[in-house]
Amino acid sequence: MDRIAKGKTAGAVLEIRGDIRYFGDMRSTALLVCLISSLLAPVFAQEGTYDFLRLDTGARAAALNGSFVSMTDDANVLFYNPAALSTLSVSRASVGFLKHLLDVNAGHVVYGRPIEGFGTIGAGVVYVDYGSTTETDASGNILGSFGAHDLAFVAGGAIPLNAQASVGVSFKFISSTLAEYYSSALGADLGVLYVIPDQNISLGAAVANLGTQLSSFAGATESLPVDIRIGITKRPEHLPVLLNLNFHKLNQSGGSFADRFSAFTFGAEFLMSESVRLRVGYDNEKRRELKLENTAGLAGFAFGGGILWKDYQIDYAFNSYGKIGSLHRFSLGLALP
């Protein structure tokens, strides 16, 4: 008979051959299946083990709803466009925490360092912890508990081609664990960045999550969520705001040519003072696909802000999923000598 493990909040429901195994009570199982499989899955373009790679990393980027492909001078660009590492003015580090739906916890650590005469290198870790779930048999007898978590180690670098253009690459080792089952993969991101200083414009493009699976859950072959993305950042003359427009998932086919550009995000970072930032973001795909009962509420919108104090930067982001719920992120950045 089938052993069914249901616990991946990224949108996947894993089926493994063996005995029937039940997790938690009927109410918890129903909530998990309904919320995860029916509601959260539209947030990702495809359901799979490695879709946690699509989660935004860092509260600043999340408040802009992932409009970060062409942003500069931030260690978290490693996760969006490795070429933008070349814009780090000093060594920078960032650590962040995300409180996801259904008590799922996630976070990251990243570090970037310019090396004179070479370029810029960076390394980071992204993790998702789905917590512990009760395991019972068909009669309701408690057998114990099991956990699930995802992890990605990322390392890369960028080199300038000239005063305006840079290229970058990063490599990933990805692992996913569910009870005693394990899956792993190798991936890579490629990116380019072009900066036009006299017009306060930066243009970025990246191909994320190229790679292959190394081992799978019970022989179930899965691919990585490849994502072709482009973005532009512009600071209008005499206005204290950074405007960002990104297009994601350009590699995925749609009903028409225009549908390829429907997965776009927009973000604005307002420079209120030398030390205070306010941010707002919009995700067109999230708003469209998280619409329930003919209303979307605030689904697809994000808000946040940041405070810069000496060499420290504290950021917060609020991301709405409409009636499903909302996410809260915190990040701490540090400029290092």
Can you characterise this structure?
The protein has 337 residues and is mainly beta. The chain has one domain: Porin (Beta Barrel). The protein is 8% helix and 51% strand. It has three helices and 17 strands. A 14-stranded antiparallel beta barrel has the order 4-5-6-7-8-9-10-11-12-13-14-15-16-17. A two-stranded antiparallel ribbon has the order 1-2. The radius of gyration is 20 Å and the shape is globular. 41% of the residues are buried. The N terminus is likely disordered.
Major sheet characteristics:
14 strands, antiparallel, barrel
Rg value: 20 Å
Q: Regarding CATH, which class?
A: Mainly Beta
Total domain count: 1
CATH topology: Porin
The SS-based structural class is mainly beta
Overall shape: it is globular
- How much is the average pLDDT? 85
Tell how many strands the DSSP assignment holds: 17
Order of helices and strands: EEEHHEEEEEEEEEEEHEEE
Poorly predicted ranges (pLDDT <50, ≥5 residues)?
1-46
Percent helix, as a range, is under 10%
Percent strand equals over 45%
Total helix count? 3
